[in-house]
C-alpha cells in the first residue's frame, strides 16, 4: 500500500502553519489532521507484539504510560503480547495472530522474503545500538581468532544478533560449524543463555540489552565487541516496527493512530530518560516477574538510541549478510516495497517533525 502523496503534502503544509503559529507565540499542539477525524467502521482489536528487552523501550513505555491506549482511542482495543525473539513473531504474523510488532530487522527481512513481499511492511524504526558480544573473562579470548573452537550463544536462529555474529565471524576468517567452521553458534533463549554463561557451559554470547549488561554484571562476562563499532556513525537498526499488510490495508487509520503513540513514546524517552527507565522496567517486571537492577538498566540504556528513523541502510546490509550466510537458499532477497513510511511521515508532519526516508 502506497500512502497518498497528496495527503502527505497537505499534512506537511499544515504542519508548517502550526509551527509558524507556535513561533509567533500562539502556542498549542500540532493539528491532528484527517486521521483524527476518521474512525474504524466498528470495534477493532490491535494485537501488538514486543519483547521484554530494553531495546524495545518505546513499546514498554508506550504500554506502561498508556500512550498507545490514549492515541488509539476508545474504539480500538489493544491486546499486547510479549515474545522472546523475532522468528516467533514472524510465525505469529503469518498465522494472523498479531497485527503490529516491535522486532529486529533480520526477522522482518525473512518474513518479507518468505512471503514474496506480501505479508508485512516496516513502518518505523524504534531503536539503534544495544547489542554486543560478551565473552567469559576466563577463556583467554582476546582477538577474533581465539573464538575458534568456542561456543557462542545468540537469541534464536536467524534473528538479528544471530546473523550479526555469523557475518562477523566470516569477516574475521571464521565460520560456524554448519558452514564448515569450528565455532559452535548456539541459538538459545536469553534467560537460558545467562544461566549457561554463569555455569561456564558457553564461552560467549552476542545478545541485545539488557542481556549483554547482565552477562557482564551478573556472570563475570567481559565486553569483547560493542556492535556500534561496526557501523558508520555507530548507528544501526536494532528494533523496527512492522505491520501485517492486510491490517494496514484494512485499518490505515488505526495504524496511523498507533504510530502517533509510537512517536510520542520515543519523544517521552528522549525528554525524560529516568522516568522512561522506570516505566520500561515496570513493564519488564510485569512480563518476567523480575525487574532489572538499577545498575543493569542504567548501563544498558547508555548503549541505545531510541528513534523512529528506520536507518534503512543498515537493514539492507543485514539482508546482504543473511544472503551471504545462506539464509535465503538460492533465492536472492528482493526488498522492494519492504518499507511503507507514508503513515509515519504523515504523523511526523502533523507533529511538525522532519520526515524520514528509506
Fold blueprint:
Layout: H1 5-23, H2 33-37, E1 44-51, H3 57-64, H4 67-72, E2 76-83, H5 86-94, E3 100-103, H6 105-114, E4 120-129, E5 131-136, E6 151-154, H7 160-171, E7 184-187, H8 190-199, E8 204-208, H9 211-219, E9 221-226, E10 237-244, H10 245-250, H11 252-271, H12 273-288, H13 294-302, E11 304-306, H14 312-324, H15 342-350
Parallel strand pairs: 1-2, 1-3, 6-7, 6-8
Antiparallel strand pairs: 3-10, 4-10, 4-11, 5-8, 5-9
Helix pairs in contact: 1-15, 3-11, 3-12, 5-6, 6-14, 7-14, 8-9, 9-13, 11-12, 11-15
Descriptive account of the structure:
- With 358 residues, the protein is α/β, with parallel strands linked by helices.
- The chain has 2 domains: 5-129 and 235-350, Periplasmic binding protein-like II (D-Maltodextrin-Binding Protein, domain 2), CATH 3.40.190.10; 131-232, D-Maltodextrin-Binding Protein, domain 2 (3-Layer(aba) Sandwich), CATH 3.40.190.10.
- The chain has helices at 5-23, 33-37, 57-64, 67-72, 86-94, 105-114, 160-171, 190-199, 211-219, 245-250, 252-271, 273-288, 294-302, 312-324, 342-350; strands spanning 44-51, 76-83, 100-103, 120-129, 131-136, 151-154, 184-187, 204-208, 221-226, 237-244, 304-306.
- The chain has a 6-stranded mixed β-sheet, with helices on both faces. A 5-stranded mixed β-sheet has the order 7-6-8-5-9, with helices on both faces.
- α6 (105-114) crosses α14 (312-324) and α9 crosses α13.
- The two termini are 15 Å apart.
- Residues 1-37 have low confidence and may be disordered.
